[in-house]
Amino acid sequence: MRAFLASAIGVACTAALVLPTAAIAAPAPAVPASTAPPGSTQSLPLVPLVPDAPGDDRAAGTVPQGLTERDAKLFSLLGVIWDDPEAELHGTVQVRTRSTGTGAWSRWQFLETHNHQHAADAGTAEREPGKTRGSTAPLWVGASDGVEVRVRPEGDAAVRGAAPAPLPSGLRLELVDPGDDPPPGTTTTAAADAAEDNADDAAAQTGAADDADDPRTTVLTAEDAAASAVNADLVPLGATEVPALSKAETEAQTFVLGGKPRIGPRPRIVTRKGWGANEQLRERNFVYTKRVKVAFVHHSATGNNYSCSQADSVLRSIYRYHVKSSGWRDLGYNFAIDKCGNIYEGRAGGVAKAVMGAHTLGFNTNSTGIAVLGTYSKSKPPAAVAKAVARLTAWKLGLYGADPSAKTTLKSGGGNRYKKGTIAKLHVIAGHRDGVSTDCPGGHLYSKLAQVRAASARLQGR
């Protein structure tokens, strides 16, 4: 077991000591893929709908597309994707779904179509041509078994009488089933199982009691172990959460050159194991940058129609949508926060490390991305959200000596607000819209960021 840990922990480090910059390979699978957590994605091509407006032109790609009312296998989240990640969908996407609980159809709901500014940076391996796809933001609809969708192109609102823009090619509806929550209980690695098998044999000979058949005991695959091992400087292998520490305890465990760290108390963080991430979905490598200078705050734009007990399922659904539907290497965000203020580990690589995400196009290097689950363009976030963002940033930024109340600079990798190579001056705690032109994280959440910066700095003792 110790030998296994030594190899899997190759990238683990004391929080502020060693910051890997290269891609790190995880071990090969130790158990069959059939043991992976359940979950599925249905991909349904959209078809032209009957033209219903003058000027609709099938050849020009301006005929509305969609799917008429139909049955589907169980799903809880949906989105629309298309072939070219550089293409934008200038139009509207509406869906309605049938609940498995009531059998009733929902009202029509709009999907956020301007989602292209959540992505890996140009020129990175994650953004290689042919690997990724364009997409709307996903929408959480709850357990459903029926769907209808319509996509309509729009003209330039600034030009009266402008012809509708062509819709992107290869439009498909993605229906995501997150699978069941992982069972509570202990976890073991495949290596530990072999030792336990020997113990089982001995127990059988002596008639001793054993819990090897306890259904609450689950096996860590090699991918599970690798994703957990990068947090081994904080918690044991297979832990479902990183427990909270007091400020004094956090300071005692944080080493910085030059003296006492300015850092907030470590918050409780639900690990990927805790929310049931299927580690066989993501790419095996972990990719790091040099440090964390900026925390970008996002909303997931998945809607607010979820309970906090469903947050694990929402997160598993977004993860699957990012990887299987959008073609990203892993979940795009480094962290997620639900509306009750619970904090979750996002992209694999270690919660204390400078993991490169795919959350803020052009600014994924030397930053971390925090997604608040929900949509906050018209709805106000609960008070617990701002408190959680402040707690998380006070700790995470403190590991890298960053002052939450200050400003800093990042070089743009290219986007719709800052050209490639531009040095942008940004708040250390910034909204997604500060780096690119987007509504994210929604006006109501964005308006809370000044309060978050002040609270985060206070938690650091500034």
**CATH class bucket of the largest domain:** Alpha Beta
Order of helices and strands: HEEEEEEEEEHEHEHEHEHEEEHEEEHHH
Mean pLDDT: 85
Using only CA atoms, what is the Rg? Answer: 23 Å
Q: What would the principal axes of the Cα set say about the shape?
A: globular
CATH architecture of the largest domain: 3-Layer(aba) Sandwich
Number of separate strands? 19
Describe the sheet with the most strands.
8 strands, antiparallel
Parts with pLDDT < 50 across at least 5 consecutive residues: 1-36, 188-216
CATH topology of the largest domain: Lysozyme-like
Provide a count of the helices. Answer: 10
Protein name: Peptidoglycan recognition protein
Organism: Streptomyces flavidovirens
Domain N-acetylmuramoyl-L-alanine amidase: 281-442
Domain Peptidoglycan recognition protein family: 267-415
